[in-house]
Amino acid sequence: MPDLTDEQIKAEIMELHQAIYEKFKYEMKYIRPPKGEFSERTLALTQKLGYKTVMWSFAYEDWNEDKQPDEETAKKKILDNIHNGEIMLLHGNSKTNTDILGDIIKEIKTMGYEFKSLDEFEA
After folding, report:
1. What does pTM read for this prediction?
2. Contact residues for 35 (Cβ-Cβ < 8 A; gap 6+)
3. pLDDT at 121
């Protein structure tokens, strides 16, 4: 986002906002900068547009469809990094993630953790 003009940023965000609303009837209020790239200008602009920027506290190289880890490696990486207050970034284009997500959720709950929405997390 830092390389885009204010007008480009606003257009992209509002297009996404509209698509999310049309598909899910959800009004976006949180935003994660693509690739985690931001500047003071982009943070100020997204705040002015009414969004709260939220970053992640865990991510791994799962976005590259040509370099997908095997399921056991991915599970270990995810489970070895679980921590209180974690905001986990998993990319939906990862076949490995989609294959293991149910198992990961069950295992994390077995470890005593809960899943909460950002709204609950903020409270």
Report:
1. 0.79
2. none
3. 74
